[in-house]
# Entry
Amino acid sequence: MKGEWAKLVLAAQFLMRLPLRTDRLFSAGRMADAPRYFPLVGLLIGVASAGAYWLAALALPHLVAVIVAICAGLLLTGAFHEDGLADTFDGIGGGLTRDQSLEIMKDSRLGTYGTAALVGALALKAAALAAMPPFWVIASLPLAHCASRLSAVLVIATSRYVREEGTGKPVSQGLSSASLGVASVIGLGAVSISLIWCQPIALVSGLALMGVMHVAMRLMFEPKLGGYTGDTLGAVQQASEIGFYLGVLAWL
# Structure
């Protein structure tokens, strides 16, 4: 049990910017298994974002409360996934070859492609959530954050890491079947619980478009890179999260 708790704490430290002491918990094996809890950490981020929305909506207009919720998520994660999205678009858009793309993605400077992708992603999130009734904002945030982290885990499980070093190095050997099973159970559990108060067709619509965005993002970078990097995992998470919001909104 202590080992599983350590993996959860390592996953939380990896995905969020929290002052967690993990020096006594860290090991290469535990870090490699930490992605099994990425969906659970995503769920916690989504719950916190939904809570921020609810509190803000008590005194502020709907759109402003939505932006507060998005900012709360950015603060919790340090814009970790958004940074990956921007780097991915800079690398794929600006590099003519695989090596050029990988080199550009390592550059900390933000380019035109990355800026456009980042602005577009944040705008789509805000616009989609602002177009939903308050109930659906609160219901969508936790599930979208949870399922989109599972979407990124699926990339780890079905593709290969293409760098010698980087944020994805701990799982460069792939994901164990046990870890994939745990992550899937968490994701499916969150969906099942959501069925208590959400109409099934809305969730199906959200998850379907999430799947489309997952595949579309992978088709953008995998043929060129021959696999994934830590940055592209962030890009898949962002695309999947947006896809869920748009799917639910399309049904509404």
